[in-house]
Design brief:
single chain; 4 strands
Length: 267
Amino acid sequence: MSSPQASKRTRTTPPYELVYWPTIPGRGEPIRLCFEATSTPYTDTTNTTPSGMQDLKSLITPSPSPSSTNPPHFAPPILKHGDLILSQLPNILLYLGPKLGLAPSPEDEGGDDENGIYHVNQLALTALDGFLNEAHDAHHPIALGAYYEEQKDAAEARSKDYIRNRLPKFLTYFENALKSASSKGGEFLYGGKLTYADLVLFQCLDGVSFAFPKSVGRLRASGEFAGVWGLYERVKGREEVRRYLDSERRLPYGNGIWRYYEELDGE
């Protein structure tokens, strides 16, 4: 069921369409969470429509774009909104944030935080760097096009450093962000309310918890990052998010960005 705010958006804006690889969360998942957390209707094209995969392939075909305004797209996720077609996850989040009430907008009536969206984006980009990009590189440290088994030794070395050094470093950053005055209370990363940065951090923490359950579990049990895990549970407990997580729309982890290999999960 859509909220009054979401219903108003449905009447006044074109429908949203997410185009991403089917059956995996991946880089499409933060976008899904933005829609789900705000009860915004959207179409998850490759997972819900018969022509979804063909639509995706047509958008990433390596050829010039016929559109006078939309350049070609290298890879998904891709967002369609009316005549606008965007790709690159951070770019899509930057676009959706103000429209879904998940980031400040200088166009808001009485708005006094014209630069706030860039602060939210900074936080989201840092989460994506530390818990998505680096988590992926832990199991594919040499070549994206090669199988994991072809770079297993390098992956074990890379994962060891990631668990020992990089994970704690990024967790410390977000713990400090929550303790900063810009958080306005420590419950959310910025401005005292839910933004897309919180949703990105939630998803990334969930992903690394799947990929490195023992290692992340130890870091969580240490109590050193209580603020970060408090935010994780706070987002997870929101009614709209909880309903989504319990639904079939929430895709399982598997052979995507966040992968579990027992030998990579520390000692």
